[in-house]
Amino acid sequence: ARPDSGSIKISGIDCIKSPRAAQQLIGVVPDESNLYPELSGFDNLCFCASLYGVDKQDREKRAHALLEEFGLEKAANRKFAGYSKGMKRKLTIAAGIIHQPQVLFLDEPTTGIDVASARQLRKLIADLNQNGTTIFLTTHYIEEAERLCDRIAFIVEGKIVLTESVENLLQPLKARHVVQLTCAQPAVGLPEGLAQAFPEFEFSVPLQNKIHVESARPVSLGPLIRFFEDRGIEVFEARKMVPTLEEIFVRVTGIEAGLMQREKEKQGGGAAA
Predict the structure, then answer these.
(1) Same-domain pairing of 209 and 127
(2) pLDDT for the residue 40
(3) How many alpha carbons lie under 13 Å from residue 215 in its C-beta half-sphere?
(4) What percent of the chain lies above the pLDDT cut of 90?
């Protein structure tokens, strides 16, 4: 495939004019593993290294080192088909970096795996980046992007709508004070009454029984709680909210928090959080 327009260069190499030379600098880890189920973990890594022209002695040495680094040395000689989903993701990432690329593309690396494996993978990704590998990471988990990435691009319907550093994205929210109130009943019609009673605050309802209170100054809870009590509504939790990337995403894209939560659950987000 060739681009419609524009150019791509990595370390001065034109990826369109010299694709083979560029391939040596790039590692790709797809969403679904592309390794061979009938081969062992060790043989899969050695085969992938051979595709990049790594000689036999170096690829075997590198394969052993990666199996140990990813905690897979005991499964080195087992067939890939017998690996758990978390183990398969680890080996697929190891295969993507067997030739020590400068740039690594990761497509949703923690989707659908257990909590322990997801945590371990995030640490491995962070370590790779710290050791000099540039990583492009796609993920539906915004908290994961916030934790791992230096720069974020929000993509909606296939188009990038915003690109910025995490620090710059969060900066406007850090000057704001946000409190989330959780009510025993749905908060239907409450924001209008609250806005009239407390014009200095901004109110929103991210979920049926939750109300966000936002202000440029600290929020005093007493008057708010009395407002609810006077209307026979029980507030059983008041929590100060720390600014998150998810809030920025919702504001920029218009995608509601409730819809995002349902998408996470549909894709197994509960397991990887």
Answers:
(1) no
(2) 97
(3) 14
(4) 43
CATH number for the domain that contains residue 200:
3.30.70
> Of 115, 138, 161, at which residue does a domain stop?
138
Distance CA 206, CA 256 (A): 7
Q: Write out pLDDT tens, residues 158-176.
A: 888 889 998 888 877 777 8
pLDDT at 50: 95
Q: Are 251 and 172 in contact (CB under 8 A)?
A: no
d(CA 84, CA 71): 13
Cα 112 from chain centroid (whole Å): 13
A 10 A CB-CB count for 122 gives 17
- Inform me whether the pLDDT recorded for 264 exceeds 80: no
Rg (CA), the chain: 24
- Reading the block at residue 251, the tokens are 């504001």
Residue 160 vs residues 2, 153, 198: alpha-carbon distances, Å: 20, 6, 37
Tell me: the pLDDT tens digits for 37-91? 999 999 999 999 999 999 999 999 999 999 999 999 999 999 999 999 999 999 9
Q: Which domain holds residue 30?
A: 9-138
DSSP secondary structure, 46-88, as one string: HHHHHHTT--HHHHHHHHHHHHHHTT-GGGTTSBGGGS-HHHH
